UniProtKB/TrEMBL annotation:
Residues 197-273 form the GHMP kinase C-terminal domain. GO terms for biological process: isopentenyl diphosphate biosynthetic process, methylerythritol 4-phosphate pathway; terpenoid biosynthetic process. Catalyzes the phosphorylation of the position 2 hydroxy group of 4-diphosphocytidyl-2C-methyl-D-erythritol. This is 4-diphosphocytidyl-2-C-methyl-D-erythritol kinase. Keywords: ATP-binding, Isoprene biosynthesis, Kinase, Nucleotide-binding, Transferase. Its EC number is 2.7.1.148. One of its GO terms (molecular function) is ATP binding. Pathway: Isoprenoid biosynthesis; isopentenyl diphosphate biosynthesis via DXP pathway; isopentenyl diphosphate from 1-deoxy-D-xylulose 5-phosphate: step 3/6. ATP binds at residues 94-104. Signal peptide: none annotated.
Length: 288
């Protein structure tokens, strides 16, 4: 038997860090939405008791360090499944990009194994298992558009922004999320207007959405990886409707409503960057 699940990437429309907590995590407030840039996860039943990982189009761990492996292990142990599974990851989402590529693969494995192993779990129950793997996994279990608080797991679902184009550019220069958190100066931050963004989305006020795109991690990432700042500047100056960095970067994305403008910008960027994608915002929740 085989089950296939789509694992879409997320972007942050806003990203705010409120304070550092006593447990070491940062209290965040961010608006996330899913986009049509997705890995495909194929799950095949195995008669043996093993979890096997095969990665197509990418260099990723195939052992317990792969988040997809961890997702399978959690469900297998918790529900006493005696058969195994072969997980084939068709990788499309760039790795370490700020697009939650690993988290969405883990979430897709949770949804897919729920079907393959006929566990009958709800999305809420799968999200609870997902949090054991990482803070972004619960959001990725549901998909859609949400305000995420706490360490990213307290989700309030909101309407979706219009399904405009999302042009993503991932610079080569990588950044470490840990380093960025360490360097964040929370007292000196210019915080995003999260409430205003929620209203703009609810009112379908596209210019209002574009003008409120903001990520408090940008200044730190720009310092560590100046190429990211350059890409953002270039996108802003080329007439995109709104531009911001996703997650801890280094991917920068633009929202663009016009067909023509989106294609033109995509072709220009492709001329000098390896990893450029033109997709649509989806913002729809997964169904079981
Ligand atoms: P986030 O936006 O949640 O911070 P990210 O997009 O920056 O995540 P990922 O692509 O999820 O980063 O990868 C981060 C790390 O996770 C990499 O070191 C990678 O090796 C590891 N990893 C484990 N499993 C996966 C997977 N299935 N897909 C991608 N990365 C994975």
């Amino acid at each position: 038997m085989c089950v296939t699940e789509k694992a879409p990437a997320k972007i942050n429309l806003t990203l705010d860090v409120l304070h550092k907590r006593d447990d070491g995590y940062h209290e965040v407030e961010m608006i996330m939405t899913t986009i049509d840039l997705a890995d495909r996860i194929h799950l095949y039943s195995l008669k043996t008791d093993r979890i096997e990982i095969q990665v197509e189009n990418g260099l990723l761990p195939t052992d317990q360090n792969n988040l997809a492996y961890q997702a399978a292990k959690i469900l297998k142990e918790r529900y006493g499944i005696s058969t195994g599974v072969r997980i084939v990851i068709d990788k499309v989402i760039p790795v370490s990009a700020g697009l939650a590529g690993g988290s969405t693969d883990a979430a897709a494995v949770l949804r897919g194994l729920n079907k393959l192993w006929q566990l009958g779990l709800t999305l809420d129950e799968l999200a609870e298992e997902g949090l054991k793997i990482g803070s972004d996994v619960p959001f990725c279990v549901y998909g859609g558009t949400a305000v995420a608080r706490g360490r990213g797991e307290k989700l309030t679902f909101i309407d979706s922004p219009p399904k405009v184009y999302v042009l993503l550019a991932k610079p080569r220069q990588g950044v470490s999320t840990k380093d960025i958190y360490k360097r964040l100066q929370i007292e000196e931050m210019d915080h995003p207007d999260t409430a205003g963004m929620i209203h703009a989305i609810r009112d379908n006020d596209y210019p209002g959405i574009c003008s409120r795109l903001q990520n408090v991690m940008e200044p730190v990432t720009f310092e560590l990886a100046p190429e990211v700042r350059k890409i953002k500047k270039r996108l802003r100056e080329s007439g995109a409707d709104g531009t911001v960095m996703s997650g801890s970067g280094p991917t920068v994305f633009s929202l663009i409503a016009s067909d023509q403008k989106a294609t033109k910008l995509y072709n220009t960027l492709r001329g000098f960057m390896d990893q450029v994608f033109l997709v649509r915002l989806i913002g729809e929740k997964h169904r079981l």
